[in-house]
Each structure stands twice: as structure tokens, then as C-alpha cells.
């Protein structure tokens, strides 16, 4: 059916030639008629039939020619090599040949630049990952020193050093996960995870921060098991908890609270991280997960990368991230796990 439509379309495009051939045939038939009625009756039908056959053959031949020309051109666009350019030029006119040569030269240059950019990006990703892993070595030694020599330090110094360690660790992890989000090839290990164990593990990392700010932690974690990547999920939780710690207790008269709870709805498991901090204004909520967004509370030291990475990693491991906030009353981030 498609082939018939192409033939009909070609006939409409070439109708001027059809009219010319028809006029020529009519003139020929007129002279035959003048030469004698007997010859006219014999040859008129034959000439009309021959005209129709010749015209139809020409149309079909042209349709096939244009189809091959189109296929060669599309192949050339997909792979603008010199060989494909030569094949595409083969069925083109002089003006089209010049245009195709310019297109080929431009596309090959663009492909070379894209390949060079991709190589540079891969090298940059490898460098970032290598740098981050190398930084982890002195960071681990720093952690070991704080654990084993804590009695040799004053409580104030130890607390400040622990804050520095946590901050350094957070920035290094952000860098690693940012590189992973931007990487072409990604690896995730999905396994059954206890949400309670995962949350307690992350909370233990921030224990000193929570104690210092006197944040009341409320846990309402039912025994929920989800299928996810453990490291990625722990990173997401660490960013949510760090964000809550940063903005909880923003007003002195409040008793700072952090509530982590889990539940189910429509067979989907939901993990909620809720605080009673300053929250965000309604018009800011839509930009909450944008890269670099810090809102009106940007005077607090923030890179605006934490929640951005939470959303990006959530998309990678199929966790839906939802934010609910009432300005001046707090923020709630919900993680919806997929049904497996």
C-alpha cells in the first residue's frame, strides 16, 4: 500500500511530463487519423497502451531510484564516512553533490569533536574517582586517630575535629556520587535491605551533630524490607538527615525534632524523613531538587547539591522522591520504593 502511495505521489509530481506525453500522443493520433481510418483503428489502441506502459515504467523506475537515494542519504547521515559520502553522491546531481560534500565535512568534524569531548569527560570522571578514593585514605587515618587518641584531646577539640571529619566525608561522597550520576556506565548492587538497619547506621554517623544541636530523634520504623542498592540508599539518607540537622532548630523557641518513619500505601513502601525546621516557601518547593538551589536560607553554609543528588540517584535506582513543606513549620521528604 505504501508503495502504491509513492507511485501515486510520483505521478502527481511528474504530471507535467504526463501532460506533455499525452499531447504528443494526441498529435500522433491526429496524423494517423488523417492518414486513414483503417490504420487509425489498428494503431490508436496500441499507441495509447504503449504510452501508459512507458509512463508507468518511468514512474516506478524513478520511485525506486529515489528510494535508494534516500536510503543512501540516511546511511550517510548515520555514519558520515567518506565511503558513505561517495555512495550518497553517486545518485545526486552536481549541486546536490557539493552540498553533500559540505555536510560530510561538517559532520565528520562534529563527530571528531564529540569523540574528543567524550574522551576528556571519561578522563575527568576517572580523575575525580581516583582523587576521591585517594582522599579517603588520609580521611580513614583521621577517623582512626580520632577514635584511638580521643582521650589525648580536650572534648572541645575532639568535637570540632569530628565535625571537620564528617564534613570532609560528606563532600567526598557528594563528589563521588555526582561523578557516578554523570557517568555513562553505572553499576548498582540491588539486594534486600532492612530500612531500620540502614537508618540507624546513618544516624550513628551523625550522632555527635544530633547531640550537639540537642535534636530529638523519633524513630517509627516498621520491619520493612526493600530491594535497593545499599550504598546509594545510605547516601540518600545521609543527605536528608544532614539537611534536616542544618535547618532544624532554626528558631530558638522550638524544640528541634527529627522523625524517621516507614509505612506502606498501595503496596509501595514509603520512608519519611521529617523535621520541624524552617521549611521552604511554597514557590521554592518546585526548585528544591535543582542543582545549586539553596533558597532564602542560603546564608547557611550550603552547596545546594545534597537534595539534587538525592533526586538524581533516586531516579537511577527507581526511588521516587517527594517533598512536602510548610514554611516555618518544617519539611518532610518521602522516599517511595518501587513494587517488586
Automatic annotation (TrEMBL):
Superkingdom: Bacteria
Molecular function per GO: phosphoprotein phosphatase activity; phosphorelay sensor kinase activity
Catalysis performed (reactions): ATP + protein L-histidine = ADP + protein N-phospho-L-histidine
SMART domains linked: HATPase_c
GO cellular component, one term: plasma membrane
InterPro entries on file: BphY/WalK/GraS-like, HATPase_C_sf, HATPase_dom, His_kinase_dom
Membrane topology, record value: Multi-pass membrane protein
Main location: membrane
Domain spans labelled Histidine kinase: 130-340
Transmembrane helix as UniProt keyword: yes
Top-level class of the enzyme under EC nomenclature: transferase
Location in the cell: Cell membrane
GO biological process, one term: cellular response to phosphate starvation
Transmembrane region(s): 16-36, 42-63
UniProt keyword list: Cell membrane, Kinase, Membrane, Transferase, Transmembrane, Transmembrane helix, Two-component regulatory system
EC numbers on record: 2.7.13.3
PANTHER family: HISTIDINE KINASE, PHOSPHATE REGULON SENSOR PROTEIN PHOR
Protein name from the UniProt record: histidine kinase
